[in-house]
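User: I'm putting together a teaching handout on how multi-component assemblies are represented. Below are the sequence lines for each component of a complex, exactly as they appear in our records. Could you produce the 3D structure of the whole assembly as structure tokens, so the students can see both representations side by side? Please keep the chain order the same as the input.
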Amino acid sequence: MAGVIDDYVAALRRELAFDPALARRLASEVEDHLRDAAESDPAWPSAGAERRAVERFGLSRELAAQFAADAVDRQARRTWITLAATVVVTFIAMRLRVVWLDDGTMPALAPLIDRYAFIGAMAAGIIGWFAFRHSWRALAVCLAGLVASIGAGFVRADLFAAGPPLTVMLAAAGEVALVGLLSIHVVGLGRRLKRAAMLRGAA
Amino acid sequence: MLKGHLDAIVLAALEAGPAHGYAIIETIRSRSSKTFDLPEGTVYPALHRLEQAGLLSSTWTTPASGRRRRVYSLTKAGATALASRRRAWTRFSQAVDSLLAGGRAWPA
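Assistant: Of course. Below is the structure of the complete assembly, with chains in the same order as your input.
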């Protein structure tokens, strides 16, 4: 029959299932801690000693909630760094398109979208950073602006230029790669925020 | 109030040398004369966070007496961070002490 410590460690593993490596590491570490604590109890060996060790340790959900909150902070940092890199690369790519591509005879829409979707994305990113640091929705708006800018840039490069130069194509490839990475981070941040809220609510 | 200073407290608890989680909690409890009787699990997110920030390092060790343990030690960056937090705390506590001590009414 499983003891009180075994039950607690199993519950902690379940709560930390969102990060299997952390769950493995912490389960082992916490079990050592609880066994040390139980062995220092005058009533050891007994279920009472184990129960007191577990009670002093705190609720497994509260512990998992703290780890989930830390995971949100780390993911937010990664996301904002990727966003900053994406904005810089998108800006460079946009300027390269202005310099290298001949937009003289084309309808004004694509260059306008290229430019103003980028500016809109920057605005959403800046407002998101200062007002809602952990908002995946603000990031999603920013991401949508960047995607629109990149899409318009592709229209300009493909339809209105006679073979865009390599620098333009390389910058566009960089934009696509970074936007892909940023999308993954935004989705990851949304998931971590939901999980942290769920654990906080239940703790 | 303690929560905001937990990272500094954990760094200070490791200043004397490497220790595992249970020993860190015991050190905090005894050095604070049992004033800081935290739920013991509270220390693990702090340890993990400090390790991720490069202020602590950790390794698994197996003492001759038996159970395998993860032992944490202060890194060079951790020692620097502790010194900086200690200075900040000294300034802050001196300011609060002088405010709480009271004084003459303004204007003097």
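A couple of points students might notice: The radius of gyration of chain B is 17 Å. The mean pLDDT of chain B is 88.
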